[in-house]
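Sequence design from tokenized structure. All designs in this work follow the same two-part layout: the structure record, then the generated sequence. An example of the structure record is given first.
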């Protein structure tokens, strides 16, 4: 199940190292302001989808994608985020 997420992270990291001119991911990686705007927009759309009980899965995927690109573009590794969440687990 999480393989798809791992694959997405690998693709984003690859785009960061090996930019492709026509890549939407590269556009976001190179324009942090745009990426932040997209994260905000996608979160708002997810909240609306949840409230209306529509498109929740689609909007969730959009949020995850844009958030991963923002994290990677900001030098934040998902592994570090996961480690932080692990530290917060109650035993």
């Amino acid at each position: 199940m999480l393989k798809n997420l791992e694959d997405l992270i690998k693709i984003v990291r690859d785009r960061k190292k090996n930019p492709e001119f026509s890549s939407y991911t590269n556009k976001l990686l190179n324009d942090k302001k745009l990426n932040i705007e997209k994260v905000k927009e996608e979160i708002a759309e997810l909240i609306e989808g949840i409230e209306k009980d529509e498109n929740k899965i689609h909007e969730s995927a959009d949020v995850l994608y844009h958030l991963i690109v923002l994290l990677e573009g900001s030098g934040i590794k998902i592994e570090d985020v996961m480690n932080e969440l692990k530290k917060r687990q109650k035993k």
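The chain is about 80% helix and 0% strand. We note this feature because it recurs in several other targets discussed in the main text.
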